[in-house]
Design goal:
single chain; alpha+beta; seven-stranded mixed β-sheet; six-stranded antiparallel β-sheet; 26 strands; 49% helix
C-alpha cells in the first residue's frame, strides 16, 4: 500500500478539508489526514487504485493538487489569488458605491442598466468562484461558507434584475449590494490567507532550509578531485560533500576530515555554535560558522533530522485534539442552519415584523453573509500551527496535538537522573581492584570492562568504553544487556563476565559506594566510580517549575547517596533512588493515578515509564527506544526547553479556547444583529472576513507571548 503525500491548494476552511476527507474515504483511501491550513493531504493508496483518478476527483471538488498531473489540460484560471480577484471587482464596485458619498450625485451612474453593466463582471467572477465551489460542496453533502456568499449575492442580483426588467428600479435597485458582497468577501479571504500564512512562518522557515545548494565532490579516472554545485534535493546517501564557512549543511552528514563550529539554532533553538570534529554528525539545515570540512551524506529527505521534524509536525497538525471535535460537528451543520435562519428571518420580518419585501430580503441576505463557519473551523488549527511551529523553532517536538492539551493539567514532573538532570558525559574518577583483580592485572580488568561496555548504550558504559578502548578486545559468543542491571557476556571458553550494579554483587561485597562492579565467574574483580556534571540549566528549570506550582520528583536507578546529592543541589521535592525499570514503571503508574504526571528520561530503562506517564518527554540524544516511547522530544541536548514545552502546551490550549469563544460569540451576536436589521449586507460581508483575521492574529500572538 503506497503512502501518498500531496499539497492541495484552494482549501479555505474546515468544511473544505471535510469535503476532501469524505471524498477520499468514499474512494477507499485509508489513514486519510487533511490539514487545510498547510494544504497537506496524506493517505494510503490501496492496490489497484488510480492516483490520477483520485487527483481529478479532488480537482472536480474545486481544489488543485500542486505539481500534480491532471487528465487533460484544464483551463488556467485568469485570476490566481484573492487579491487579484478583489482588485478586479473593486474597479467595477467602487463606481456603484459613489452615490453613497454625501453631496456626490452622478446621475448617469444611477441608471439601472449602467449599474447592471458594472455588476455583471463582478457577478460572473463571484459565481464562478463562490457559486461553483458552493454547488460542488452541496453535491458532496458538505456545504461550505461559499454557499452562503453565493446565495446572498445571487438573491441581491436577481432581485435588482427583476426591478430593472419590470421598470421598478427605484424600488429594487440593489446591484451595489451584490457587487459589494462579492468584492468584500474576496478582500476578507485575502486578509484571512495572509493572516493564516503568518501561523506557518516557523514551519516555512524550516522547510526553506531544506532546499539549498551543495558542493559535491567527485573523482575522475585519474583520481583527480572535482567539486561542482548541485541542489540539495538531488543528493543521495553516501555522496561526498565539501562544506565551507558560512554555508548551510545541505543534508545530514558525517565529517570525514576537518573541524568546524556549527550554528544548529534552526533545529535546537540554541544560538551558541557547537564544535564538531571527525566522525561527528552535522544536521542538515544547520550553518557552518567557522571552518571547512569534507563529509559524506548519511540521510536525505524524510530520513534526515530536519525532514523528520517537518514530517512529525505536519502529522501532528493533521490530528485533531478532543476540543476540535465539537467544533467540527458544529461546522458540518452550520451552513444548513444559517440558511434556515436566513429564510426564517425573511418570513418573520415580512409577516410579523411589518417590514416590506425589500427590507426583509436585505436582512436575510445580511444573515447569510455575516455568518462565518470558517471561524469555528479555524480556531483550533490556527493555534496549533503557531504552537507547533514555535516549539519546532526552539527545538521542541510534539508528536501529536493531544499532548498540547494534556500539558495544561500537568501537576508533577518526574526526572531520571543520569543524562537528564546531569550531562551524561562521565569520566572515570575511581578504579579499585580486589585481590582477584590484582591477580589478573589492571590492564586485563580494563580490557574486560571495555569488551563488555562497548555493547551498551548507557552513558556510564559509553564513558568506560571511550576511556579504556583497546584493539585487543575479548570476542564474546553471547552478550546480554538487562535494563537497570548492566551487561553480561559469555566467552568461547564458557567464562561468564558482567559489569553491573551493586544489587547483583551484594553477596560478594558490602561496599555500596561505586557505580559499576566488574565480575568474572561470580568473582568480584574491581569497582569503578564515574563522576558526572549537573546540567547548568537544570537548577533554573526546576525552580521555574516549582514557581508554577508543579511538584518535582527524581526517579533513578542510581544509588541513594548520589540521587540525594543531585536533588539537594537542584532543590527537587522528592527522591526515589535505586529503582529497577519495573519499580520505575510501578512508581509512574502510582504517581499518574494521583495527579497528571510528565516523565523526563533518556535511557532504555526509562522507555516503559515514558510510555506510561501522562506525557513522556525524551531528549534528542537519548536511546532510540526512549525517543520512540516519548510524546515530546527536546532537541537541544538538554532539559533547557522543558518549561517552554509545558508553557506552549498550556498557552496553545488557552488560545484555542479563546478562539472558539470568539468564533461562537461572534456568530451568536452577529446573526441576531443582522436579522433585526442593524447591519447591512455590505457591512456584514466586511465583518465576516475580519472575524477570521481576529482569530489568526490571536493565534500568531503565541509566537511572541511569554509562556513560562
Amino acid at each position: 500500500m503506497e503512502k501518498v503525500n500531496w499539497k492541495v491548494t484552494g482549501m479555505s476552511c474546515t468544511n473544505c478539508a471535510l469535503s476532501i476527507d469524505q471524498f477520499l474515504k468514499e474512494k477507499g483511501m485509508e489513514e486519510v489526514k487533511v490539514n487545510f491550513i498547510g494544504g497537506d493531504v496524506s493517505f494510503n493508496l490501496p492496490e489497484g487504485a488510480n492516483k490520477t483518478t483520485i487527483q481529478k476527483g479532488i480537482h472536480d471538488l474545486g481544489y488543485q493538487v500542486k505539481g500534480g498531473e491532471l487528465l487533460g489540460n484544464p483551463n488556467k484560471q485568469l485570476f490566481q489569488t484573492h487579491l487579484q480577484r478583489f482588485a478586479f471587482c473593486a474597479v467595477f464596485t467602487i463606481p456603484l458605491m459613489l452615490h453613497m458619498i454625501p453631496g456626490l450625485h452622478i446621475h448617469w451612474l444611477m441608471n439601472p442598466y449602467v449599474q447592471l453593466a458594472l455588476t455583471i463582471p463582478v457577478f460572473i467572477l463571484g459565481m464562478d468562484f463562490f457559486g461553483r465551489s458552493g454547488l460542488k460542496s452541496l453535491l458532496k453533502g458538505v456545504p461550505n461558507m461559499n454557499v452562503l456568499v453565493a446565495m446572498g449575492a445571487l438573491a441581491a442580483f436577481v432581485y435588482s434584475l427583476y426591478g430593472t426588467l419590470t421598470n421598478q428600479a427605484d424600488q429594487y435597485l440593489f446591484y451595489e449590494t451584490a457587487a459589494t458582497i462579492i468584492t468584500l468577501v474576496f478582500l476578507g479571504n485575502w486578509m484571512e490567507d495572509k493572516s493564516v500564512e503568518q501561523t506557518q512562518v516557523a514551519l516555512n522557515k524550516l522547510a526553506k532550509s531544506q532546499k539549498t545548494m551543495a558542493n559535491m565532490i567527485a573523482y575522475d579516472n585519474e583520481q583527480t578531485e572535482h567539486i561542482f554545485p548541485v541542489e540539495s534535493t538531488s543528493l543521495k546517501t553516501g555522496d561526498l560533500l565539501l562544506i565551507r564557512s558560512g554555508e548551510a549543511v545541505p543534508m545530514d552528514c558525517k565529517i570525514l576530515s576537518g573541524e568546524v563550529s556549527v550554528d544548529e539554532s534552526i533545529i535546537t533553538g540554541e544560538s551558541i555554535p557547537v564544535e564538531k570534529k571527525v566522525k561527528d554528525i552535522l544536521i542538515g539545515g544547520s550553518t557552518i560558522v567557522h571552518g571547512t570540512v569534507k563529509t559524506y551524506v548519511t540521510a536525505v529527505g524524510e530520513d534526515s533530522v530536519l525532514g523528520n521534524i517537518l514530517k512529525m509536525v505536519k502529522d501532528a497538525q493533521t490530528e485533531k485534539p478532543p476540543v476540535q471535535l465539537l467544533a467540527d460537528k458544529i461546522s458540518a451543520i452550520f451552513v444548513p442552519v444559517v440558511v434556515g435562519i436566513s429564510l426564517l428571518t425573511f418570513v418573520l420580518n415580512y409577516t410579523i415584523g411589518s417590514q416590506d419585501f425589500t427590507a426583509s430580503l436585505m436582512r436575510s441576505i445580511a444573515v447569510l453573509v455575516i455568518s462565518c463557519p470558517c471561524a469555528m473551523g479555524l480556531a483550533t488549527p490556527a493555534a496549533i500551527a503557531v504552537g507547533l511551529g514555535r516549539a519546532a523553532r526552539n527545538g521542541v517536538l510534539f508528536k501529536n496535538t493531544k499532548t498540547l492539551e494534556l500539558f495544561k493539567d500537568i501537576q508533577q514532573v518526574v526526572f531520571d537522573k543520569t543524562g537528564t538532570l546531569t550531562t551524561g558525559q562521565f569520566a572515570i574518577a575511581e578504579f579499585e581492584l580486589t585481590e582477584a583483580g590484582k591477580l589478573l592485572g589492571e590492564a586485563e580488568c580494563k580490557r574486560i570492562a571495555y569488551s563488555l561496555e562497548k555493547y551498551s548504550t548507557h552513558p556510564l558504559a559509553k564513558a568506560i568504553a571511550l576511556e579504556w578502548k583497546t584493539k585487543d578486545e575479548i570476542r564474546f559468543s553471547k552478550t546480554t544487556e538487562e535494563k537497570g542491571l548492566g551487561m553480561t557476556a559469555i566467552d568461547k571458553e564458557g567464562n561468564t563476565y558482567s559489569a553491573t550494579s551493586y544489587k547483583m554483587v551484594a553477596h560478594l561485597t558490602t561496599d555500596t559506594q561505586h557505580n559499576i562492579y566488574l565480575v568474572k565467574n561470580n568473582e568480584l574483580l574491581c569497582s569503578i566510580n564515574l563522576k558526572d556534571q549537573i546540567r547548568p540549566e537544570a537548577a533554573l528549570m526546576v525552580k521555574t517549575l516549582q514557581q508554577k506550582g508543579i511538584k518535582t520528583i527524581l526517579l533513578s536507578g542510581d544509588m541513594q547517596v548520589k540521587c540525594d546529592y543531585v536533588a539537594n543541589q537542584l532543590g527537587i521535592d522528592e527522591v526515589y533512588a535505586e529503582q529497577s525499570p519495573e519499580q520505575k514503571l510501578a512508581k509512574i503508574e502510582a504517581l499518574t493515578a494521583v495527579k497528571p504526571t510528565a516523565m523526563v528520561g533518556d535511557g532504555i530503562n526509562d522507555a516503559p515509564a515514558l510510555a506510561k506517564a501522562t506525557v513522556g518527554v525524551s531528549l534528542s540524544d537519548a536511546a532510540h527506544i526512549a525517543v520512540q516511547s516519548a510524546e515530546v522530544v527536546l532537541m537541544n541536548h538538554g532539559v533547557k526547553n522543558l518549561t517552554l514545552a509545558l508553557g506552549l502546551g498550556k498557552h496553545t490550549y488557552l488560545t484555542i479556547q479563546q478562539n472558539l469563544f470568539w468564533a461562537l460569540i461572534y456568530n451568536v451576536v452577529a446573526i441576531p444583529v443582522a436579522a433585526f436589521g442593524f447591519l447591512s449586507p455590505t457591512i456584514g460581508a466586511l465583518v465576516m472576513g475580519l472575524s477570521d483575521v481576529v482569530l489568526a492574529i490571536n493565534s500568531v500572538r503565541l509566537n511572541f507571548k511569554k509562556v513560562y
